[in-house]
Amino acid sequence: TYEKICRYIAREGELVVVSVGYRLAPEHKYPAAYEDCLNATIHFMKNIEHYGVDPANVIVCGDSAGGNLAAAVSQTLAGRSDLPKLRAQILIYPGLQALDFNLPSYQQNRGVPVLFREHVTFFALHYLSGHALHVQEVLEGSHIPPDMRLKYLKWVSPD
Hints:
Blueprint: H1 3-13, H2 32-46, E1 59-63, H3 65-77, E2 88-92, H4 104-108, H5 117-129, H6 135-140, H7 146-151
Helix pairs in contact: 2-3
GO molecular function, one term: hydrolase activity
Protein name: ADCL4 protein
Keywords: Hydrolase
């Protein structure tokens, strides 16, 4: 589904674009997609000369679940001294947290196709566990113990 946009980005930006066809949920739950993206990125970076790419200009990018994967790969590679440093990460409406599906961004986009809160929750659960049996609990926020919610409140809150 992304071949045309990747070709456009490569052509218009005069860039090399590597698009990873990672394994999808629910057949392949976490961490399959993450491992695929991480392994592909490491392989690319270890063989960067073969692709004619300047090691100082490597960027990872993703949208939605791919944004989550790009962020996770970036964090994993940040401490690696055996690979070139990533120049940037581009995250397009990334799924970055599953603590609270009632934050302002979810409320503001609750009626936007593709970003329906129920759909996001459904797909997040499929990604993590391979099923979506607890959608209602997640939407209500009862999937997180109160002490954990308090612990992460300074990072994940409407404020």
